[in-house]
Amino acid sequence: MSIGPVAKPGQVIGLLGGSFDPPHAGHVHITLSALKRFGLDHIWWLVSPGNPLKSVGPAPLKDRMQAARAMMRHPRVRVTDVEAHLRTRFTAETLAALRARYPGVRFVWLMGADNLAQFHRWQNWRWIIETVPVGVMARPGDRIAARLSKAARMYADARLPGRASHILGCMQAPAWSFVNLPMSHQSSSAIRARGEW
Q1: pLDDT, tens digit, for every residue of 65-114?
Q2: Buried b vs exposed e over 2-32: b needs ≥16 C-beta within 10 Å?
Q3: Which pTM was predicted?
Q4: What is the spatial distance between Cα 161 and Cα 168, in angstroms, rounded to a whole number?
Q5: What is the CATH number of domain 15-193?
Q6: Which entry of 125, 126, 129, 187 is 20 to 30 Å from 90 by CA?
Q7: What are φ and ψ of residue 18, in 5° steps?
């Protein structure tokens, strides 16, 4: 039985992980921007069973998957719950499992600048950045904290200039690129706080 979308060796696949609790137009915006800015063939949304860094669990996975598929409709984007099938809890575990399952596929981990600011708190974060290229997309208010973060400072020599971000998927890790985007101010937490989810 196949787990996850189909991918061919040589393809560059961006991975956007998160709880998507709920998915919103901001997720769509950064996904479409990442496709262009990082030269990706496809992007997979990895709708996680739960976030180990959050104390409160998200809405049921089936509800988030249904909402994500309704929100993200693009021929080069796949919404997947592959982490639930792989039974992985942390990003490093997921990446290791996907790399084993898809030999020859070039994965790029995608994250918002807010995640780069606390990336050093992730389990095996150094293995992640030394294993796959990382594409960082600026969100309002997170640019300075991200650029001064422990990960950004430790891997300053591996940073690809924004003007060269389109070759990120072809780079050997460690490699990362930080791009400023006209970002949406929508957030899942704000949507939940308004009682809209």
Answers
A1: 999 999 999 999 999 999 999 999 899 999 999 999 999 999 999 998 88
A2: eebeebeeebbbbbbbbbbbbbbebbbbbbe
A3: 0.86
A4: 10
A5: 3.40.50.620
A6: 187
A7: 165, 170
